[in-house]
Design a protein that fits this description.
The protein contains 4 helices and 8 strands. Strands 1, 2, 3, 4, 5 and 6 form a 6-stranded antiparallel beta sheet that branches. Strand 7 and strand 8 form a beta hairpin. The longest helix is centred in the first third of the chain and has 19 residues.
């Protein structure tokens, strides 16, 4: 799964609706794409694996800790400050719970240059999309797909009047543990 790919498969969303034909595939795919980008926006992170390492720049705001984008492996990790590559052992990578790494902490007397730019080369993203993220994506995609049947947000009429489509608290509760804090990419 590459950066920008949806966090769930079209076949999974179709199974939720019991759809076996391809008539609605383009609308379902669009709903999955929109739901995946919405999950990224809500969590302030992306969950796919970039597949290859690339360089990103971060601004140091504290002397001993640098918050970076998620990266799936420390293999091939390089950190450069003012054009000088730091030696392994002068910093450590810290994981986000059971997920990827997202912090670099200095070791010993080393410090990040406050306000300075730190270049980090890593394989960005997660090795696999977490199950709660996939489930939240499917929940949101299903709601987005159903909106075509809810003009002006009206899903129908019940005994208490108009029934409106609202944000899904279940999807949000699945995603809250994946919302980081602290400064991110420049």
């Amino acid at each position: 799964m590459a950066l920008g790919d949806p966090y769930a498969e079209l076949t999974e969303l179709k199974a939720r609706f019991g759809i076996t034909d391809a008539v609605d595939d383009s609308q379902l795919s669009a709903a999955l794409e929109a739901a995946s980008r919405n999950v990224e926006s809500f969590c302030d992170r992306q969950f796919n694996d970039a597949g290859v390492a690339s360089v990103r720049q971060f601004r140091a705001t504290t002397p001993g800790l640098l918050v970076v984008d998620d990266f799936s492996t420390a293999d091939g990790l390089t950190v450069t400050v003012d054009g000088v590559a730091l030696e392994a052992g002068t910093y450590t990578a810290e994981p986000f719970g059971p997920g990827p790494f997202w912090k670099l902490r200095t070791v010993g007397v080393g410090r990040w240059p406050i306000g300075g730019v730190v270049e980090v080369s890593a394989r960005w993203g997660w090795a696999a999309v977490p199950a709660p993220v996939k489930e939240a994506t499917l929940i949101v995609a299903a709601e987005l797909f159903k909106l075509k049947d809810a003009p002006f947000g009206v899903a129908g009429f019940g005994e208490f009047g108009v029934v409106r489509v609202r944000d899904n608290p279940k999807a949000a509760s699945l995603l809250y543990p994946y919302r980081p804090t602290g400064p991110r990419v420049l």
